[in-house]
Amino acid sequence: MSPVWTVVAAVGAATFALKAAGPVLLGGRELPRRALALIALLAPALLAALVVTQVVGGNRELVFDARLVGLGAGAAAILLRAPLLAVIVVAAAATAVVRALF
Amino acid sequence: MTYRYRDGARKIAPIGVAAVAFGASFGILAETAGTGPTAAVVMSATTFAGSAQFAAVSVLDAAGATLAAILAAVLLNARYAPISITVASEFKGSPWRRLVESQLIVDESWAISARGGGRFDRHLLLGAGLTLYPCWVGGTAVGAFGAEFLGDPETLGLDAAFPALFLALLVPQVVSRRALVAALLGGTIAVVLIPFSSPGIPIIVASAACLIGLERR
Question: What is the pLDDT of residue B153?
């Protein structure tokens, strides 16, 4: 198998198993209240980490570039209660403008 | 309030539009990395997780080893273990059904199905996932087969749309002081770890921020 197809197969199989883990092993069971309290906090923690890694994440380094401007513009759109699609478009457009200018 | 599949589809629709563009940019990146269009589309259909696919293909493009590409993608997707546990109690029926339905879990469908207090709505999640899937796979096909006619996705700023999207999904989750602390702690852990670890690890370690929930009120 070529390296490309090896990666496609291995990553596909691993992701399949990771996504299935919870629903297949624990499906339909009520979680204890203690666990629910943790799970309620997992969403904000993970989403914040995703924001950070997507905006300044590089390969083992922090990269500060036009993405920050895009996030700032997106945050302003969120504050103005813009619809989700507008937030995404504003963030991309602001980044594109900065990249075109500098 | 009870939700139906189409409520999930409606809520995710704006992200679906973006997913077509993200899918196309993945297709273009994969094509420039030399994977061939078919492998790019098959990967979108079988992995269905944007960031890990981008990571795997960029490592391949940088002439990295096959193992490094696999490891980068699997680490990035390791967050699906805790994510899938959070929604586990919502999935009913036979193990086979749960196995198939669980494949519609992605960051966006999961975040949009959160009902607060650690509860999630399966109809919202599956309706959203079913909507995103054709957008993502179709977008990949457009990008991969049309790469030579389309521009460089970076000039369009598409990579900056991701953090803005996740921020927009984060805001409605910050419903309490504790949620705010968890978000700030998770973000801080990620920033601190980015320079010292492979991509993916900062996100996994940041999920430990939820442990502040163990403290008694």
Answer: 78
